Fold this protein.
Amino acid sequence: MPKNITHEQQTPEQNYILAALSGAERDRLLKHLDPVSLELGNVIYGPNQHISYAYFPTTSIISLQYIMHTGACAEAAEVGNEGMLGLPILLGGNATPNQAIVQTAGQAYRLDQNILKREFNSAGKMQQLLLRYTQAVMTQMFQTAACNRHHTIEQQLCRWLLLTVDRIPSGELLMTQELVANMLGVRRESITEVARGLQHSGCIRYRRGHILVLDRHKLENSACECYSVVKKEFVRLMSGMR
């Protein structure tokens, strides 16, 4: 379960959507935001579970995963400090077949679903931001599906690493190869082999669950076009909203 923390440990400006709000709209929302700490592996909501809260990550990353009947899983999208977890609340479903699990421990703001709906239905800037963000998430999901079908595991891993480190200022991930394999829906042995090659080429350094990006330019050259498509679409949709 998320742990409550104090406002002094994070600020709304660390989340792109919250930082874009201003005036009375921002003031109304801030008094309802609960700062929480999210631990690695926490399940925020499970498949077909009622979603009661939206989350605005500041330093954490949440993975949206689909779980098969066999227990195998694969990531469809990530939510970090650029966005919000809880879009099904606004789309009317209040539940989804996927699960949301904390991929990178950190902090976030939690908002009751009723407050979120009220602010969204007021047709202010919050509504504009979340509609555009929804399209950005859809692009990420579509591109991930295409990437998993048509690109090599090395390209997929590079795309995933780039999208993840974009949300972490330090550029270092605390992530085992087994967890990465689960995110991509591939065998752990395949990730081990690819990670060894990326480390040998100087792109990353991997040791005991720590992945550090050493050469971003090389990593981008090793990735497929999917990373660029997702990033450019987010910039196109959201850059003019602040």
Remarks:
- Residues 108 and 188 are 30 Å apart (CA to CA).
- The first helix runs from residue 16 to 19.
